Amino acid sequence: MRLAKQTILRLFQYREFLILAKSIGIKNVYSDTLAEALGSSATQVRKDFSLFGITGNKRAGYQLDDLLSQLNELLGKNEKQKVIIAGAGNLAKALMQYEGFKKEGIEIVALFDNDPVKCDPQNDPPILPIEDLYNFVSEKQVELGVIAVPYYVAQQILDLMIVAGIKGVLNFAPIYLKAPKDFFINDMNLRLELETVAYLIKTRTKAGVHKESS
Amino acid sequence: MRLAKQTILRLFQYREFLILAKSIGIKNVYSDTLAEALGSSATQVRKDFSLFGITGNKRAGYQLDDLLSQLNELLGKNEKQKVIIAGAGNLAKALMQYEGFKKEGIEIVALFDNDPVKCDPQNDPPILPIEDLYNFVSEKQVELGVIAVPYYVAQQILDLMIVAGIKGVLNFAPIYLKAPKDFFINDMNLRLELETVAYLIKTRTKAGVHKESS
DNA sequence: TAGATTGTTAATCGATTAACAATC
DNA sequence: TAGATTGTTAATCGATTAACAATC
């Protein structure tokens, strides 16, 4: 099934909200509850669910535990996924602090950096020289990467990742990267995103695009 | 004019490429050149331009300097914009390192943090206690903010920003924030974005959504 | 039962792409 | 001129929203 990135993002957001709701003892949710929590609409929520054959009860909404386990299954949250980060700078640190990764089945297994000063194989996760990337990734069969290196080495690092066996990346380098058709790249250009908000403020479109799911 | 966030993002990306192209001495570009550079299509490029009345020459494409100055005008790049960051953690540091901000007319004028240890009014930009946010923002008439604080204080910080006069934010807190209709929020949930790539890899949709402009 | 909520179909909306005339 | 490229209109595509029957 072809799935829009936006839909997938929403499914993750539903899941996130359910976990929170569960922690405060809620047992049932309605499409309306979820819509409210995400700034979406009830129809959208039901539509998303119907795409996956997730069903609720006509009068009682969705049973939380049930819904959550269906989403977990769907989103592959029952399996672990290893990730490496290229570039051991502040962005990498910020990601590691985002925390909750481990809880989410995503494990940062190593960082890689050019700068010998930043390297520290004893750290957990280890910070290794770029030269080790190929062997590490191919041996451990890591498939997910993050590109947090300066833009002028980003393509080179990506190429290295690709031959090593990485299948998709989250890219923070502000540059268009070339990759095979079946390779996934999710571009995050933080500066452009900030400039976009700056632009919107300046031109103060009165009937506002005030909510973006990015 | 109502403008899709995606269109604005593309305009910024064109501009970015033009600056690079200019630096290596290129004088003319074609819609095809720009499309290639961004992984877009020539039709898309011309369509975007036509929305703004930007025109080229039938046979010679677009004169680079000319195009660039039109984009600068359009995107408000001839004016400066001040921005504050709430939360002086690694993400804030990463943003400051992104560099090029000043060059882009965006100036980080202050950071704010709860933790007295992190505060340093002598730093450039100054790192101030949250208590100072209201006065600082209203006095300096800052309109743009970044939310880089933990999710459980994000709404509170946003409310504070709003009353202080901020008109839009780039939000890194993984939570749906409530704000007035004419307030701009651009949500960046880095974890969800990474999870999305992880999902796409797992389900390995062969006919790939391999390029995302997020 | 009456009221509330789901699940789905059809309508709308918006963005991207294709087609092509204009013209340098 | 012939060929290449623009600018725009129409077609397509996909996602969101509205409407509403089904039913707990």
Fold blueprint:
2 copies of one chain form a homodimer.
Chain A: H1 5-23, E1 28-29, H2 31-38, H3 42-51, E2 62-63, H4 64-74, E3 81-86, H5 90-97, E4 106-113, E5 127-129, H6 133-140, E6 144-147, H7 151-164, E7 168-171, E8 184-187, H8 190-203, E9 211-212
Parallel strand pairs in A: 3-4, 3-6, 4-5, 6-7, 7-8
Antiparallel strand pairs in A: 1-2
Chain A binds a DNA duplex (24 and 24 nucleotides) through α3.
CATH fold description of the largest domain in chain A: Rossmann fold
One letter per element, helices H and strands E, the order of chain A comes to HEHHEHEHEEHEHEEHE
Radius of gyration of chain A: 20 Å
CATH class annotation of the largest domain in chain A:
Alpha Beta
Main sheet makeup of chain A: 6 strands, parallel
How would you describe what is shown here?
- The structure is a homodimer of 214-residue chains.
- Chain A is built from 8 helices and 9 strands.
- In chain A, the strands form 2 sheets. The first copy, chain A, has a 6-stranded parallel beta sheet with strand order 5-4-3-6-7-8, covered by helices on one side. In chain A, strands 1-2 form a two-stranded antiparallel sheet.
- The first copy, chain A, has helices spanning 5-23, 31-38, 42-51, 64-74, 90-97, 133-140, 151-164, 190-203, and strands at residues 28-29, 62-63, 81-86, 106-113, 127-129, 144-147, 168-171, 184-187, 211-212.
- The first copy, chain A, is globular, with a radius of gyration of 20 Å.
- In chain A, helix 5 (90-97) links the parallel strand 3 (81-86) and strand 4.
- Chains A and B meet through helix 1, helix 5, strand 7, strand 8 and helix 8 of A and helix 1, helix 5, strand 7, strand 8 and helix 8 of B.
- Strand 8 of chain A pairs parallel with strand 9 of chain B, so a sheet runs across the interface.
- Chain A binds a DNA duplex (24 and 24 nucleotides) through helix 3.
